[in-house]
Amino acid sequence: MSLETMRPNPTWDAASYEDTVDTLATHDDLTYKVWGGDWCKDCRALLPDFGAALEAADVPAERIDEIALDQDKQGPGVDEYEIEYIPTIVVEDESGDEITRFVEEEDVPPAVWLAQELESELETETA
């Protein structure tokens, strides 16, 4: 792992987030690209729980791309993906098409927010 902040929070309670974990586990064909920095307070606050959610959902390490940025928020893929704030988590399908992204702050944790967005996208695709 290239981000210490993605190390799963050992106190995160997967049972309290059963729907989130189930949604993440169901979509085993997705890739999570995570831009962050171990120096970033938002990353330190949000990413350990996200790492724990991915672990609880048995998302394999090869489907998680951790990208560490320096304090100037520079690093791989920043320009290509237009990364401005961190943490940013981009979820892509097997073709490399972006499904959704979490950027820095939402009103719910990243795993919950992304699971809701994925469920919404699935309803749209199957409707």
Automatic annotation (TrEMBL):
Entry-linked SUPFAM superfamilies: Thioredoxin-like
Taxonomy, superkingdom: Archaea
Please list the residue ranges annotated as the Thioredoxin domain. 37-103
Q: Name one Pfam family in it.
A: Thioredoxin
The membrane-spanning stretches of this chain are none
Name of the protein described by the UniProt record: Thioredoxin family protein
User: Which lineage do the record's taxonomy fields give for this organism?
Assistant: Archaea, Methanobacteriati, Methanobacteriota, Stenosarchaea group, Halobacteria
